[in-house]
Amino acid sequence: MASIWNIPNFLTLIRILLVPVFLYCITTKVPFYRLMALVVFVVASITDFLDGYLARKWKQDTAFGRFMDPLADKALVLATLLVFLYLDPQIPLWMVLTIIARDMLVTLMRYLAIRKGMEIRTTRLAKAKTAFQMTSIILILMIFFVRSFQIDIQQTFEEGHRRGKKNIQIASELLARGLKILKNPDYTPREKKKVFAESIPYFLMLLTTIITVISGLRYLFTNYQVLLPPYRIIQRE
């Protein structure tokens, strides 16, 4: 039995400790801190890969690590999504709640699996979802960094809402306009960046939400047995 005091578990704890650092940096509109938020998130994502890889390579897999590793991932991702709601008017609440609901279901299933001595099977789709989710968040953080240079999207969406438009309508119009002016020399690089900075996060979050729902249903179908009784610890012989 591997000790819980090992490097993979240490990396997992580091990822948890980076969450408040990330939140402080991303909520500050100064470009340097927005850049630091991006760096912190990337470093945390790298530790997510390293802790699992090292645990397998060095045979330091522990029950603590199996439980805390996905918990640390969810803490980082969910904190990021919640702060996106605060920072970006184009990201709707229902997307974030859908992703949170899926992660809560998976966490419950992992907990029940531990109690019942069962193994949770992770599908390829779930791994693809995680990769796409992390990539989308990094791209959105890069856009937030660009926005910190006095590119304000708040007014654009508020004006669209006053006209009775929904976020998907506003984002679609902005994206269509961006594609139209992309090669138009009459527009400055700043104007082109502003249009894409306004529309891309919505569609990244929409795709992430769709993939999250599909992967959640697949995860439930693959591991539904853990939700069935009995709900007790089974001693292995």
In short:
The chain has 8 helices and no strands.
Overview of the molecule:
The chain is mostly helical. It has a single domain, classed as CDP-alcohol phosphotransferase transmembrane (TM) domain (Four Helix Bundle (Hemerythrin (Met), subunit A), Up-down Bundle). Helices cover 75% and strands 0% of the residues. It has helices spanning 7-26, 31-57, 63-87, 93-116, 124-147, 154-162, 167-181, 189-222. Helix 5 runs antiparallel to helix 8 and helix 7 (167-181) packs across helix 8 (189-222). The longest helix has 34 residues, at 189-222. The protein is globular. The model has no long low-confidence stretch (mean pLDDT 84).
| Biggest sheet architecture | none
Structural class designation: mainly alpha
The CATH superfamily is known as CDP-alcohol phosphotransferase transmembrane (TM) domain
What would you say the CATH architecture is? Up-down Bundle
Mean pLDDT: 84
CATH top level? Mainly Alpha
- Helical content, roughly? over 70%
First CA to last CA: what distance?
16 Å
